[in-house]
Amino acid sequence: MAELATIARPYAEALFRVAKAGSLSAWADLVSEMAQAAAHHDVKDMAQNPALSDEQVVSTFSSVLKTPLSVEAKNFVSALVQNGRLTLLPEIAAQFHTLKNAQEGAADAEITSAFELSDAQLKDVVVTLEKKFGRKLTPTVKVDNALIGGVRVVVGDEVFDTSVRAKLQQLHVALAA
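Request: output the structure for the sequence above.
Response:
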């Protein structure tokens, strides 16, 4: 069976082309909302229920969203339902977000810190990272006490790890060799 990312890519690209013609940020918000709804186990069960028609699934799915669906969005959801792909919305949203970031010259940065960061500290870290990576970053912050100290940053497929745990692991490898 094909990988989910491979199946989701054409849907994300088609949706992105439609979104570029309108308000990209509004579409991004809608796609995120739809992805959250589609990830819920009750919605997954409903989407795979053979007793429901495609129209019933589309109507029910639309009703659980806060944002009313435009004609284009409703057509997109209908296409997903007809092809049995509604549960792919979280992956479609992730790829849509990646396309949006590429268009805007931005990237998501997952910052993991050993301790809670204040707003000023986070701002300083983001400014430094934006210089290092050469693009605007949208940070998400997590706290992991196992790092002992420092931060670990993941931007796309790049990892920047200055944590004490990483330095101890490097030291362990050097001593064991």
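Residues 153 and 159 are 6 Å apart (CA to CA).
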